[in-house]
């Protein structure tokens, strides 16, 4: 008989016995993705997923091992191997021990329309996206993921959760321009391929006859995808307790580093969130206020970074300790302004649909370079007057959101893609006082 | 294993596929990292499973499972065909496969020391010594060192009769020191950022003399805090070889992927500035520029015997004296483009669909040396070791940051500069390549973190390069 995720995690703890401290995370699920390009489905994949990650500490000597064989023979071999590896290690002076038993909130982030979606249903959503372009060339994907995850450790902590996610993300292309659209939900039944396709097609058509704009600083309205990318960088390089401990974070707790209009929370539990209610170390997750009305409030911690900071884990442990704590349910709080209002407040500036290929130049200053993509438009006298060719920027994300720099916050809060994966950030559009574009089509 | 993979293939054919193949993959990997004299991570992983690919009409269907019982694999084959069939809701043009010889073969990466079998204590002790040496330099805040290795067996079976087993061994690592100032961080890495990875055993790591370089690297990181900023303006740019390798990867390697050129990656990775009808005519760069995609280079990270659809590894000329003449391709993309299949299709594990990936896309050596380039430069900057990289979806507009630079004035290397960046447009930039290092300075650099595809796949690719000189490049871009 096949084991469920909790049985797999429990079995690992049993097999370790009193030989070591142990924590185990087991996952089971399905992942399916239907991919299209040149307006036809060219790749269509699915897999049954299974995995178990075991971390042990033998007298403070730590090792971890990940595998995908979950029968007794496979788990026994995995457990013996990871214990043997740990015994050969030096003592890890920063080992925080495994989590103590703590109740984990039950949240329902799983939906049957996602876990039971068929290739034919995904193909239908794709067809709706393509057809909405009325002859434009479409590319993108529609996927459905389901995962059951369970945690167990040698102190008796147990946790179980199920999550689903579905996304449609794609572009329409005219031959000289492209426009994009993105939708993510825990419920495949909410994915509207037609609406996404219409938005992408509209952006693509508006993007024709683009002109080269001279680089420089411009006022901008950034769509949620851009804001999501900013949040990802600030989370990974800034709000991480590990990055802070290492001195590479921009974060100054209690300091108004942001405009008062900016509030950022990591919320894995809300009704629209997609996360599990516990982290890789079995610590229950709670909403964490990172920035409140412009004031930096907190760091995300795993057990290791919390121990170093003489505090407690915030439930942001990640499988790989070298990465440190990860904020994977970021929300940049929305405002009251419609996107039309945000654009209407700009005398001369740019509307940017998405960023592309962003990379950090320096984590402490949060200076990032990247490009605009799939929709860059000139705004003049409060309305979009034409398309602009893609621009390169070199800009500190923190400075761009600094005091006095946020002129409007959109009421269009939603899951937004960030080029680093769907379902990680919810963000609204933002109207910012300035953005430093450092290159155009000619470099 | 061949029998198990064959069961999946046969089931796919029975379910209506015109072609099917399957890979049984068993992989182990290891990653060790120390930080500031203490162990931070020892992660190992093991995974085994089968991925089966079925072609029905114009679409690929793919299904993967870790359950390798015969019944499960027969089910996987049938599911792959069913998934492909569902694609017919929005069918495309026919997807013919270019012919390749049917082969039965066995290949193993040449190696001396199986990297995962080297005693853990030896590896950890070496990393701790490197980290401790860097920590001994005043001003170093973070002293990190790491090693990684992959040991992968693949059994490939196709419905056309090929049966291929390969054992690929990849090893590498590196270290970096970070100094942190009031509003900045400065990092130096060795042998390159993200480490240097090659096919081969642990002997590849021993060749790099980590301990002999740790002190110098740490001192450079600290010195950067007090260095002047890279000057702004148009200068002659000399790139040290590992940075030139990444420049090749981003502005040549991805641009010549035939799936991108055909629009198959348009939504995510992007397309290419190259147009197929210009193959053989388009000028990619200067006369000094000769690029090959060579999956047969001993020791390079993108080396194997057969790709993941059973096509033999090849050496393909991509750019000949500045003229674009070749692409990276697989059986489907090559057939559509009317080109011979390049043997460049690989997957990131059993559970990913094989796709066009770089092998070893490298710049053949020239007839100069770094010393001669510096001597020939009136006003320039030498930049070394990548720190940031960004390029647009057509692989045209790029901006790179390096860890360290030095001014060059009147043929002499001058003061160290920090935050060196440069930007350009691909064909214009490569047209400005005028000097290249000789074979003595030519290294098979490895990139272990090349992302592409949806779901995302990480490939290991190689890029041979020696130092190169480019004229009139915009440097010193700031935020």
Q: Give the overall shape of chain B, derived from the CA principal axes.
A: globular
Number of strands of chain B: 24
Biggest chain contact:
A-B, 93 and 86 residues
**Uncertain runs of chain A with pLDDT below 50, 5 residues or more?**
none
Look at the helices and sheets of chain B and give the structural class: alpha+beta
Strand order, largest beta sheet of chain A: 3-2-1-4-5-6
Number of E strands of chain A: 19
Query: Low-confidence segments of chain B, ≥5 residues, pLDDT <50?
Result: none
Provide the structure class of chain A: alpha+beta
The SSE string of chain A, one letter per element, is HEEEHHHEEEHEHHEEEHEHEEEEHEEEE
Q: What's the total helix number of chain A?
A: 10
Helices and strands in order, then pairings?
The complex is a heterodimer of chains A (443) and B (479).
Chain A: H1 5-16, E1 21-37, E2 40-58, E3 61-67, H2 72-87, H3 112-115, H4 119-131, E4 137-153, E5 158-173, E6 178-185, H5 193-206, E7 216-222, H6 224-237, H7 241-245, E8 264-266, E9 288-292, E10 295-296, H8 303-308, E11 330-332, H9 339-344, E12 348-362, E13 367-380, E14 383-387, E15 392-396, H10 397-400, E16 406-409, E17 414-416, E18 425-427, E19 430-439
Parallel strand pairs in A: 7-12, 11-18
Antiparallel strand pairs in A: 1-2, 1-4, 2-3, 4-5, 5-6, 7-19, 8-9, 8-11, 9-10, 12-13, 13-14, 13-15, 15-19, 16-19, 17-18
Chain B: H1 2-14, E1 19-35, E2 38-56, E3 59-65, H2 70-86, E4 104-108, H3 120-135, E5 142-158, E6 163-180, E7 185-190, E8 196-199, H4 203-206, H5 210-225, E9 228-229, E10 233-239, H6 241-253, H7 258-261, E11 291-294, E12 315-320, E13 323-324, H8 331-337, E14 345-346, E15 355-356, E16 361-363, H9 370-375, E17 379-391, E18 397-409, E19 412-418, E20 421-425, H10 426-431, E21 433-436, E22 443-452, E23 457-465, E24 468-475
Parallel strand pairs in B: 4-6, 9-19, 10-17
Antiparallel strand pairs in B: 1-2, 1-5, 2-3, 5-6, 6-7, 6-8, 10-24, 11-12, 11-16, 12-13, 14-15, 17-18, 18-19, 18-20, 20-24, 21-24, 22-23
């Amino acid at each position: 008989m096949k084991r469920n995720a909790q049985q797999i995690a429990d079995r690992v703890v049993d097999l370790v016995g009193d030989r070591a401290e142990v924590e185990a995370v087991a996952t089971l699920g399905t992942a399916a993705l239907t991919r299209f390009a040149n307006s036809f489905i060219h790749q269509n994949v699915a897999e049954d997923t299974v995995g178990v990650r075991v971390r042990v500490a033998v007298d403070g000597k730590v090792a971890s091992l990940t595998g995908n064989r979950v029968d007794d023979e496979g788990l026994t071999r995995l457990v013996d191997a990871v214990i043997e590896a740990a015994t050969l290690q030096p003592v890890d002076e920063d080992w925080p021990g495994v989590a103590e038993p703590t109740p984990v909130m039950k949240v329902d982030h799983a939906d049957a329309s996602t876990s039971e979606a068929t290739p034919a249903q995904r193909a239908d959503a794709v067809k709706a996206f393509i057809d909405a372009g009325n002859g434009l060339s479409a590319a993108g994907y529609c996927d459905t993921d389901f995962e059951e995850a369970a945690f167990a450790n040698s102190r008796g902590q147990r946790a179980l959760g199920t999550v689903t996610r579905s996304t449609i993300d794609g572009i329409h292309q005219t031959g000289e321009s492209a426009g994009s659209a993105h939708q993510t939900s825990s419920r495949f039944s909410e994915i509207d391929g037609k609406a996404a396709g219409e938005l992408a097609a509209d952006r693509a058509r508006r993007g024709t006859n683009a002109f080269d704009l001279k680089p420089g600083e411009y006022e901008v309205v950034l769509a949620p995808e851009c804001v999501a990318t900013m949040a990802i960088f600030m989370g990974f390089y800034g709000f991480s307790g590990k990055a802070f401990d290492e001195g590479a974070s921009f974060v100054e707790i209690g300091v108004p580093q942001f405009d008062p209009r900016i509030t950022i929370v990591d919320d894995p539990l809300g009704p629209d969130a997609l996360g599990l209610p516990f982290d890789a170390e079995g610590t229950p997750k709670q909403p964490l206020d990172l920035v409140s009305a412009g004031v930096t409030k907190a760091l995300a911690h795993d057990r290791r970074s919390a121990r170093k900071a003489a505090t407690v884990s915030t439930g942001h442990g990640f499988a790989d300790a070298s990465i440190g704590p990860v904020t994977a349910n970021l929300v940049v709080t929305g405002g009251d302004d419609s996107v039309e209002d945000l654009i209407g407040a700009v005398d001369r500036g740019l509307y940017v649909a998405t960023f592309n290929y962003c990379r950090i130049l320096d984590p402490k200053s949060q200076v990032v370079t990247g490009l605009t993509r799939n929709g860059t438009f000139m705004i003049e006298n409060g309305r979009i007057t034409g398309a602009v060719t893609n621009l390169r920027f070199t800009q500190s994300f923190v400075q761009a959101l600094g005091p006095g720099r946020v002129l409007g916050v959109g009421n269009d809060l939603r899951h937004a893609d960030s080029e680093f994966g769907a379902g990680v950030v919810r963000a609204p559009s933002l109207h910012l006082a300035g953005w430093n574009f450092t290159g155009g089509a000619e470099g | 294993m061949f029998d198990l993979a064959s069961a999946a293939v046969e089931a796919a054919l029975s379910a209506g596929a015109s072609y099917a193949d399957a890979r049984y993959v068993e992989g182990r990997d290891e990653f060790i990292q120390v930080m500031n004299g203490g162990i931070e991570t020892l992660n190992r992983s093991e995974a085994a499973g089968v991925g089966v690919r079925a072609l029905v009409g114009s679409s690929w269907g793919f299904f993967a499972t870790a359950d390798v019982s015969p019944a499960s694999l027969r089910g996987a084959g049938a599911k792959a065909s069913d998934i492909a069939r569902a694609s017919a809701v929005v069918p495309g043009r026919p997807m013919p496969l270019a012919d390749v010889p049917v082969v039965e073969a066995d290949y193993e990466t040449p190696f001396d020391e199986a990297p995962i079998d080297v005693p853990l204590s030896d590896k950890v002790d070496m990393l701790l010594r490197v980290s401790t040496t860097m920590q001994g330099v005043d001003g170093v805040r973070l002293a990190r060192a790491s090693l990684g290795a992959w040991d992968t067996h693949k059994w490939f079976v196709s419905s056309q009769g090929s049966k291929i087993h390969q054992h690929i061994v990849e090893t590498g690592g590196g270290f970096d020191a970070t100094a942190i100032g009031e509003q900045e961080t400065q990092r130096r890495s060795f042998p390159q950022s993200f480490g240097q990875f090659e096919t081969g055993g642990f002997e590849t790591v021993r060749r790099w003399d980590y301990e002999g370089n740790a002190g110098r690297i740490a001192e450079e990181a600290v010195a950067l805090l007090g260095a002047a900023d890279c000057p702004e303006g148009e200068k002659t740019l000399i790139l040290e070889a590992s940075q030139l390798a990444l420049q090749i990867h981003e502005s040549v390697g991805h641009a010549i992927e035939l799936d991108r050129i055909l629009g198959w990656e348009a939504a995510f990775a992007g397309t290419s500035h190259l147009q197929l009808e210009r193959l053989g005519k388009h000028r990619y760069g200067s006369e000094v520029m000769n690029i090959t995609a060579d999956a047969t280079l001993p020791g390079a990270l993108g080396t194997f015997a057969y790709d993941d659809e059973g096509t033999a590894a090849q050496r393909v000329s991509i750019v000949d004296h500045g003229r674009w003449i070749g692409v990276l391709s697989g059986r489907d993309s090559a057939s559509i483009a009317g080109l011979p299949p390049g043997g460049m299709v690989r997957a990131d594990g059993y559970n990913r669909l094989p796709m066009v990936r770089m092998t070893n896309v490298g710049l053949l050596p020239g007839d100069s040396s770094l010393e001669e380039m510096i001597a020939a430069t009136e006003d320039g900057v030498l930049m070394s070791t990548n720190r940031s990289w960004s390029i647009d979806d057509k692989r045209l507009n790029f901006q790179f940051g390096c860890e360290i630079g030095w001014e060059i004035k009147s043929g002499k290397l001058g003061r160290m500069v920090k935050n060196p960046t440069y930007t350009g447009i691909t064909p214009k930039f490569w047209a400005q390549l005028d000097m290249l290092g000789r074979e003595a300075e030519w290294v098979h650099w490895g990139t272990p973190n090349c992302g592409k595809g949806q779901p995302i796949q990480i490939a290991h690719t190689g890029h041979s390069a020696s130092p190169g000189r480019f004229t009139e490049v915009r440097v010193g871009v700031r935020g």
